[in-house]
């Protein structure tokens, strides 16, 4: 009976770690880097950029306002990245599992050394919308410009 309880407790502990790890935010890592130093972490983030190198690839990933670099060694399988985040498009969302290093040999900044990357959701182009207030302001400025233009032309023709 004790073995069964011990086994169930172990499974629940692992599951609770995975749930916590999936909810991990880059802001949490950056605000408390010593807590996560040399710890295995799992999180989801948007791809901002991919920079291939001779021994791997450097990924810049983001969760809204916070971003971090992820080093992906060449022996780690890379998912096909179709979109990188920018003003006009949402980048692919990746599930990233790796180890966070505050200081890692060969890198001048904190990094995540990736162990696995998997595509969660492909990116897409963002539809640009203009608010009604901006449309109205544009129309008012357009009309005002033409009224002033007609006034100026009229002044020149009548010599005033």
Could you explain the architecture of this structure?
- Helix content is 36%, strand content 34%.
- By secondary structure, the chain is of the alpha+beta class.
- The chain has a five-stranded mixed β-barrel with strand order 1-2-3-6-5. Strands 4-7 form a two-stranded antiparallel sheet.
- The N and C termini lie far apart (104 Å).
- About 4% of the residues have low confidence.
Topology:
Blueprint: H1 2-22, H2 26-31, H3 33-36, E1 40-53, E2 56-63, E3 66-73, E4 89-90, E5 93-101, E6 111-121, E7 124-125, H4 132-157
Parallel strand pairs: 3-6
Antiparallel strand pairs: 1-2, 1-5, 2-3, 4-7, 5-6
In short:
This protein has 160 residues and is α+β, with helices and mostly antiparallel strands. The protein is built from 4 helices and 7 strands, in the order αααβββββββα.
Question: Taking all residues together, what is the mean pLDDT?
Answer: 84
CATH superfamily of the largest domain: Nucleic acid-binding proteins
Our estimate of the beta-strand percent is: 25-35%
> What kind of sheet is the major sheet?
5 strands, mixed, barrel
Helix content: 25-40%
The count of strands amounts to 7
Enumerate how many helices there are, as a single number. Answer: 4
CATH topology of the largest domain: OB fold (Dihydrolipoamide Acetyltransferase, E2P)
Query: What kind of oligomer do you see?
Result: single chain
Radius of gyration: 26 Å
What is the CATH architecture annotation of the largest domain?
A: Beta Barrel
Span of the ends, CA to CA: 104 Å
